[in-house]
Amino acid sequence: MSSAIARRRTTVQTDGESKARLRAMWANLVSFTLLLGLYFFLYAPLFVTALFSFNESSVQTWPMSGLTGSWYGEMMSNGPLKAAALFSFRISLTTVAIGMLFGTYFALLVSRYVKRSRGVLLAALATPVVLPGVVLGISLLVVFRMASITPGFWTIVVGHATFVTPIIMFVVLTRVRTLDPSLEQASFDLGANRVQTFWHVTLPSIRVALMAGALLAFTVSFDEIIVTFFLAGVNVTLPVFVWNQLRFGFTPEVNAIFTVIGVFSVLLIIAATMMLTRGSARSSLVDLGGAT
Amino acid sequence: MTQTTTRETLSVSGKHGPPLRVGIRALILSPTLLWILALVVAPNLYLLVFSFWSNEIGTVVQEFTFENYVRAFTSEVFLTLLVRTFLIATFAAVMATLIAYPGAYLVVRKLGRWKLAAALLVLVPLWVSYLMRVFAWRIILGERGILNGLLTSLGILGEASDSFLYSVETVALTLTYIVVPYVFLASYSSLERIPESLYEASADCGGNSFRTFVHIIWPLSRPGVAIGFAIGFVIAFGDYVTAQMVGGLEGTMLGTIILQQFGTANNWPYGAAIGVSIMLASFLFLAMVSLFSRTEAQYE
Known about the structure:
The structure holds two protein chains of two kinds. By secondary structure, chain A is mainly alpha-helical. Chain A has two domains: 1-52; 73-291, MetI-like (MetI-like fold, Orthogonal Bundle). In chain A, 80% of the residues lie in helices and 0% in strands. By secondary structure, chain B is mostly helical. Chain B has two domains: 1-50, no CATH class; 69-293, MetI-like (MetI-like fold, Orthogonal Bundle). A two-stranded antiparallel ribbon of chain B has the order 1-2. In chain B, a hairpin with a 2-residue loop joins β1 and β2. In chain B, α4 (76-110) runs parallel beside α8 (168-192). Chain B is globular and about 70 Å long. Mean pLDDT of chain B is 83; it is low at 1-14. At the A-B interface, α2, α4, α5, α6 and α7 of A face α1, α2, α4, α5 and α6 of B.
């Protein structure tokens, strides 16, 4: 097919051929330069921060005075920092667990049991994602205050769950839409009830998407600051802790923390992407294998 | 009659298993409704109610009053910040669209089978710490930062300038940087869906790449770009961290006042009123964007 098109093109080409080719070359050159510019704009600031995490001087001056790994050492021996990091992990893990449970339930509900009100339900569930962060933060804060709930671990978890759950829901929903309904029908025909069908047929089919959505949600939750700031009590999450440090003076170990978080998140995202792409490549075989 | 309507709204099609009794259907649906009620409806409702209450020496007086809105919309500070926040967010969204949309177009058209990897590469910064992406600009633009270092060593500047950081422009630039990946994501997914055959058909009809773009690609991708533009605007509009980190006094945005009212100033009702104003302003903006981006174009 493509060779046929190519052949037709060559016959059409005439004297202007070399001129056209030159122009195409120029166009490509310009395109790639522009794209390189885009990537430079996106990545240069990140690499600058990573680079400065090895800067010997405690002042952020250019050119750097020398290389050192001491900020990483200092980061590791910073007690409050480690406490904040641990707190963040607990928050994000709890949030993701809630998000996986409800995200799957919402996705199945929306795709299976609701028809006419589907759009309304989806819009309502996704509202916290599209609200400006500062508005979501204060609206939750106000509700917690009206219910006399003191800010702390659970207020942050609930706050995060409001925007993390829809994220997982949408990832699972894309997978559910491509599921072959005959698998579930077969399960019902063979006498399985809904719970059995979900456990042995549906869940294995959406497992990969669910895990990928969970990883994505984890990075979002772990990094969140705008909403978290309003909902945190005495204990703060890692981003809020770092932000407080930056507001009241600067220590270069912040660069080291950023670099570690950045590398960690990127690794999670690579894992999630690989799971999703691999899952879709051999989907049907895996589904059948999981069902038996 | 009621029986049939409930059945239709909850429509349990035989396709997905045996029919369910109404009670069980309600049981399945109720956690969702509870979730929406508690985490979506109640917060926004209470925020609205709070904004109509007043504040007396740190305690909330639960009586209906317009005084917060009157105070806000007669306050010079609030109005200045509202306009500034609006301009900054618009600038960031427009710039990010001007950068991300052509970028997405080039990735889709020029990179062939590498396009997915190239697109993911644009999205990676989204998952690198948000604070880091803001803070990096302090290292770059600071008085002793990289830009000053480069400019002075090249002899372009006699001595380091302190005017790069802590200004409205810095906030706008940093927010542009923050929202580029979001706009890219929306642009990419709308451009990527346009089938190759449309480009070929246009070329066969004698359209060059410019005309193909203007008459076919732009009308088809416009709704996607509008979504990206709107997301970028809302994110920039509701941000206060960036303004606090790189804006200084001159670059203060609306979010910072909210932070003050819920913090040191301890006037929650006034803060709530500003929050409601932000929400309404962004919804108004989104509605306008969706109105202007409507397209008659269809394919498939």
